[in-house]
Design goal:
The chain is of the alpha/beta class. Helix 16 links the parallel strand 13 and strand 14. It has 28 helices and 28 strands.
């Protein structure tokens, strides 16, 4: 192979236009319409051709055009206005600074396998990445002291196209980092910052690229270096590359390499947030660094790291978790185990539900759970699903007390908001809706938007969507070699005046994209009603290995070609952020019909209310907690089915009924002024009630106050005085684990009749054998509630019992059982470990209940 001498060519801008480079390299522009319009003014055609990439745009604009613009007073005024807005944004006081001064000297690191920030940075596949991108934009908005860590993929995720039969094909395009809004991270001497990561007996070099996301820096790691072997250069070649070996390499680079890269920059995070389990290896590296720098043993370092780590799970089924065979983990993590001073079996045990089962595969989610002190699901329902899914890690603990909470996901509203609606909000909500991103009271002003203005904006957005869909469909057909007649027909699909329903997301089988086609004749009657037409726009990708999802796409494409659906149903290929924006901004209704409870959250539907669309969904994910009949429609009442065929029959029928009896009539009921007043009232209620709540500004604030701040305080407490508290906690846990098999509830005596009255309390006394533990090492509790039909306790509550000294049979405790309601009630006694520095009472997973051993 020839030896190449490489060099980098950067955009050449007149001095007066230099601010354009600063704006282009800060993704703040992506959620600021005036900044987007600034780049569009440079060269609208080139802006489209570059995929809305301002860096590539600046390198491609004709030099004569740049010289012309450098003397264009109107353009310069626009540029200066945008640059001043960016400068003001970067310098203004933020919510974090004003509200929580504890953050002033702290650092949070947010790790994610993918980030969906802008279409010109295609290192995302779907919901997880888009959520991470929106999360990080709100980190900037609120001014949290955070950095992000991810991977920079040469080919990212695939581009989708369909063959003649509607079968999904995948195409991968190379990312040109030098024409993207990323910059290689360099040291003070100009040399690229690089770190080494050991894997399978060799060292792999890792470099990083910086993406500035408003106020927050994001570092994307890359192994495509000449010093690496071809196999190792390919680690960051493709997002979610196939094969377990490639996946574990990627996750080692993300977790271990990410921590090392931050350290090379002088960044030592106080709190690490793992967005899914892909980055769980970061916990092992943080432990190793503490052992090396502070002379801690593994147990002490583990306590400190857990105190400063949060794990967010997005997966509602075990099949969605990365699992690695033990032998593969041993090959790749043997040096890690040696550095931690523990056996390989002990390391493998951290990733197993049953650490003693040598045949069990290593789960990245279980590893993340064991290495984190804080854990959450991404909606209220998903929190409950996660507690059920991982209850086996905490044997004997009631499911509702499994230490996994929830923070419901959100969307970064300004990234998804249309210019039309943004101008309405500016006019009627005032600048506070931007300047005070957490003030939910502002959204009550939505009521002041005149109905006719809101409706005209909605109509223009739908016209824009229909125009985009027609152009996109023509491009799809042209690529497949369609004739002029078919291309002409594509110009006539869809009707800007018809009720438009959108369905766009990952095509996984549980999302049931074809549910609407369960009864094609009934659907055709709904779509082709002569006075009240309805139309459907579909988009989405199936995972390359998911043939079930691909069959769903193919089925929809076949339906699109049927005469009764030809003008009413469209499938748009290559779903990405751009397609998503057109859809969420232009549809009247967003449809979501997964099998409950398999939708962890479902953020796509959150993007619709601020744009004037309404949500129609199964009560799953976020809709289970957000739905009221004022803001949208629910398919069913939260039922869960064992028989999937029955479920499809029932819920498709409910969906048809909703469309026929409620959705369509409400849309087409017009007054003398031709306005659908009832529909507009529902739009306003949806905007007011959903937009401020289901946004990432609320979400990130909740993460900050519910998790980051407690984790920061706990981390600081354990590491103070040379980690004295961490050392003491590790010793205490060792003592408690050794003693716990001998902890027994010996006797329980209650002074109560078989029947008591509501409002009464009765005393309970018990004796507990503590096997050498002290009373302050435990909490003894009464656990009481209504007795369910199976003899268990439903909606149980707990109340602490007080120590009353030591008797000949053990330690004595007393308490009272309240009787707040009538019916058959029951109680029992339990003993839990207790220490002031535990993150959660269930940290050790130990409990002793009243009853035989």
């Amino acid at each position: 192979m020839q030896h190449l001498h490489t060099f980098t060519v950067t955009p050449s801008l007149p001095e007066r236009l230099q601010p354009l480079l600063e704006i282009a390299h800060n993704l703040w522009w992506a959620w600021n319409p005036e900044a987007v319009e600034l780049f569009r003014r440079l060269d609208q055609d080139l802006w489209l051709q570059t995929g809305h990439n301002p860096v590539k745009l600046l390198g491609g604009v004709d030099q004569d055009r740049l010289r012309q613009l450098a003397e264009d007073v109107v353009f310069l005024s626009h540029m200066d206005r945008v640059h001043e807005a960016l400068t003001r944004y970067m310098e203004m006081p933020t919510w974090a600074v004003r509200t929580h001064p504890e953050f002033a000297t702290a650092k949070v690191a947010y790790f994610s396998m993918e980030f969906g920030l802008a279409e010109c940075l295609p290192v995302y596949s779907g919901g997880l990445g888009v959520l991470a991108g929106d999360h990080f934009k709100s980190v900037s908005e609120l001014g949290l002291p955070a950095v992000g860590v991810g991977l920079l993929y040469r080919r990212g995720y695939f581009h989708q196209y369909l063959n003649q039969d509607g079968w999904q094909q995948e195409m991968y395009l190379e990312n040109d980092f030098y024409n993207m809004p990323v910059r290689r991270v360099r040291a003070a001497d100009g040399a690229p910052v690089q770190v080494e990561v050991e894997m399978d007996g060799r060292s792999v070099l890792v470099q990083g690229w910086k993406v500035q996301v408003g106020r927050a820096p994001l570092y994307l790691l890359d192994t495509n270096l000449e010093a690496n072997s071809d196999a190792d250069r390919s680690i960051t070649h493709q997002l979610y590359a196939p094969g377990l070996e490639m996946r574990i390499r990627q996750e080692i680079v993300l977790g271990i390499g990410g921590v090392r890269f931050l350290r090379a920059l002088g960044i030592a995070p106080d709190v690490c947030h793992m967005n899914e389990g892909h980055s769980a290896f970061l916990g092992l590296e943080r432990i190793r660094l503490l052992m090396e720098a502070d002379s801690l043993g593994f147990p002490e370092a583990l306590e400190a790291v857990r105190a400063g780590t949060l794990f967010t799970t997005h997966t509602p089924v075990p099949a969605g978790i990365d699992l690695f065979p033990p032998e593969l983990v041993k090959r790749y993590l043997a040096p890690c185990a040696a550095g931690l001073g523990i056996s390989l079996e002990a390391l493998l045990g951290l990733g197993r539900m049953n650490p003693a089962d040598a045949q069990e595969q290593v789960s990245m989610a279980v590893l993340a759970i064991h290495l984190s002190g804080y854990r959450n699901g991404v909606s209220r329902l998903h929190g409950a699903v996660s507690r059920r899914m991982w209850a086996g890690i905490w044997q004997g603990i009631p499911e509702d007390e499994v230490p996994i909470g929830h923070v419901t996901n959100g969307v970064h509203v300004r990234s998804w908001l249309s210019d039309e609606m943004g101008r309405l909000f500016d006019r009627y909500l005032g600048p506070q809706w931007i300047d005070e991103p957490l003030d939910q009271e502002i959204w009550k002003r939505v009521r002041e938007i005149p109905d006719n203005e809101l409706w005209r904006s909605q109509e223009r957005l739908k016209e824009r969507l229909v125009g985009f869909a027609r152009r996109r469909l023509q491009e799809q057909l042209r690529r497949r070699g369609a004739g002029s007649q078919e291309l002409q027909a594509a110009q006539e699909v869809l009707d800007p005046d018809a009720l438009t329903i959108g369905f766009a997301r990952r095509f996984a089988t549980y999302k049931r994209a074809t549910l609407l086609f369960k009864d094609p004749e009934r659907l055709a009657a709904i779509l082709n009603h002569p006075q009240r037409p309805v139309q459907l726009i579909f988009a989405g990708k199936a995972h390359p290995a998911d043939n079930g999802g691909k069959h769903l796409i193919q089925e929809i494409v076949h339906h699109c070609r049927r005469p009764e659906f030809r003008k009413r149903v469209v499938f748009l290929e290559d779903y990405d952020l751009q397609v998503a924006r057109y859809l969420v901004q232009g549809v009247d209704v967003w449809l979501n019909n997964p099998r409950r409870p398999l939708e962890a959250c479902g953020t796509s539907g959150m993007k619709v209310p601020p744009n004037g669309g309404l949500h129609l969904s199964v009560l799953d994910g976020w809709w289970d907690e957000a739905y009221t009949n004022e803001v949208g429609w629910a398919i069913g009442q939260g039922e869960e089915y064992d028989d999937q065929d029955l479920q499809d029959d029932v819920e498709s029928s409910v969906l048809y009924d909703l469309l026929t009896d409620e959705v369509v009539p409400l849309y087409y009921t017009r007054g003398e002024d031709s306005l659908p007043r009832g529909w507009i009232a529902r739009i306003k209620a949806s905007m007011e009630q959903l937009t401020p709540v289901y946004g990432t500004n609320r979400m990130v604030r909740q993460y900050a106050e519910q998790y980051y701040l407690p984790a920061l305080q706990h981390w600081n407490k354990l590491r103070s005085n040379n980690f004295q508290a961490a050392r003491a906690l590790a010793r205490w846990k060792q003592k408690v684990r050794a003693a716990w098999p001998g902890v027994r509830v010996r006797a329980v005596v209650a002074a109560a009749a078989d029947t008591v009255e509501v409002g009464d309390e009765f005393p309970v006394h018990c004796t507990v054998e503590l096997n050498g533990l002290e009373t302050n090492d435990v909490v003894v509790e009464l656990y009481y509630g209504a007795v369910d039909p199976l003899g268990g306790l439903a909606q149980a509550a707990r109340r602490g019992m007080r120590s009353e000294g030591v008797g000949k049979d053990g330690h004595r405790f007393a308490g009272e059982v309240p009787c707040p309601r009538s019916g058959k009630q029951g109680y029992t006694v339990r003993v839990l470990p207790h220490h002031p520095n535990l993150v959660h009472p269930w940290d050790l997973g130990l409990v002793t209940w009243d009853g035989p051993p």
